[in-house]
Amino acid sequence: MDTSLAFTIIGVALTIVGALFFLFPAAVNEKVMDPLSESAVRPAAALRSVLGGSAIWAGLIALLCRAFPPEQASQLLTAYGIGMSIMLISVIGIKVRNFSDEVPYPPIILFVVLIAVAFYAA
């Protein structure tokens, strides 16, 4: 896979997810979390919004680096693969650490696909 295509896939996916988290944090929380107490709604939305902003900048970095020479692109894609692997472990850790009774499957699927793209193209 061409590194430019890999950066485009990763960048678009992270930017879209980040934008949804940033623009609609309370709605995302309602979909992915158990009902929150009234005092927890705003802090949880704030954290989801920050997570969205982080995903947006990671996505924009990928999009802006599409023209990197192959050696540099490979290094950055490897870093993306490792970073997203850490995120995958943290998502799985939600269940392992007893923070939730269920593992959220959509982010697991997203990260597995993006990790595969990053390492395959690297």
Q: Can you describe what's shown?
A:
This protein has 5 helices and no strands. With 122 residues, the chain is mainly alpha-helical. The radius of gyration is 16 Å and the shape is elongated. The termini are close together.
Search tags:
mainly alpha, 5 helices, 122 residues
Topology:
Blueprint: H1 3-23, H2 25-32, H3 38-64, H4 70-96, H5 105-121
Helix pairs in contact: 1-3, 1-4, 1-5, 2-3, 4-5
Quick description:
The chain is mainly α and 122 residues long. It is built from five helices and no strands. α1 runs antiparallel to α3, α1 packs antiparallel against α5 and α2 crosses α3.
Strand content: under 5%
Largest sheet: none
Helix share of residues? over 70%
Low-confidence stretches: none
What structural class is derived from the secondary structure elements?
mainly alpha
Q: Tell how many strands the DSSP assignment holds.
A: 0
What oligomeric state is this?
single chain
Radius of gyration: 16 Å
Order of helices and strands: HHHHH
Q: Compute the separation of the termini in Å.
A: 9 Å
Count of DSSP H/I helices: 5
Average pLDDT number:
92
Based on Cα principal axes, name the global outline: elongated
